[in-house]
Design a protein that fits this description.
Elements: E1 2-7, E2 14-15, H1 27-40, E3 47-50, H2 54-67, E4 71-73, E5 86-87, H3 90-93, H4 101-113, H5 116-119, H6 124-141, E6 146-151, H7 153-163, E7 179-184, E8 189-196
Parallel strand pairs: 1-6, 3-4, 3-6
Antiparallel strand pairs: 1-7, 2-5, 7-8
Length: 221
């Protein structure tokens, strides 16, 4: 069984007072999802899973529509920040400038101090246990032979850290709509590819360039 773990496309920022943040995709994110759909639609995918977060669901729904498949939502693949009232994409969260600088600084300080409950994060140990347990269950049930899982950078990092038997948890940078392929059967589980992003620069037939209007945006994917 091949599992294609896909990080969601770029979302918009969202800052709430009384509800959990659950942003959808930005304009660039919609474009990234379109490119991902064109790329993966050529493969023999027979099952699609998504985190229930909008940014993951909106990334993979176009592919499901193209293939005529239903999306199975799995809360176990939600990100560590699943209960946070703030969502700032990493390129904003770790920037010291811009309109969200004050909120970003407070949020990062919460991460660095380990004040997870106050910022709506799972405890990292609980997060790892949840993600790896969900991954193990997927490998055991094998609902398809070519599966796509739309989820989050932190989720993918935890799974891949386990597969490469890292002594410490790796913080792997997975780009928006980056594809990481894992093979799983009764005897073994291993990483096949990491962070495929060719679909953002090419189709299956030709190089198309990194942006639809010829604009090159640094770290856009």
């Amino acid at each position: 069984m091949q599992i294609c773990f896909v990080r969601h496309a770029q979302p918009v920022p969202e800052i709430n007072v009384d509800r959990v943040a659950n942003p959808g995709l930005s304009e660039l994110g919609v474009w990234q999802a379109e490119r991902l759909t064109d790329w993966l639609a050529t493969e023999p995918i027979d099952h699609i899973i998504s985190s229930p977060k909008r940014r993951a669901a909106q990334t993979i729904q176009p592919l499901a529509d193209r293939l005529g498949l239903e999306v199975a939502f799995e809360s176990g693949f939600s990100e560590i920040d699943r209960n946070s009232k703030i969502y700032l994409p990493p390129e904003i969260l770790f920037s010291k400038n811009g309109e969200y600088a004050q909120q970003a600084q407070a949020y990062v300080e919460g991460i660095q101090s380990g004040d997870y409950a106050n910022i709506g994060w799972d405890n990292p140990d609980d997060f790892q246990e949840r993600v790896l347990g969900t991954f193990k269950q997927l490998c055991e049930t094998q609902p398809g032979q070519h599966i796509v899982v739309a989820c989050h950078g932190g989720v993918i990092s935890r799974i891949l850290s386990e597969l490469v038997t890292a002594k410490e948890r790796l913080m792997l940078r997975v780009f928006y709509t980056g594809i990481c392929r894992v093979w799983a059967d009764d005897d073994k589980r291993f990483l096949m590819t990491f962070n495929e992003i060719g679909h953002c620069c090419a189709s299956r037939d030709e190089v198309t360039g990194p942006m639809r209007d010829g604009q090159v945006m640094e770290l856009s994917y």
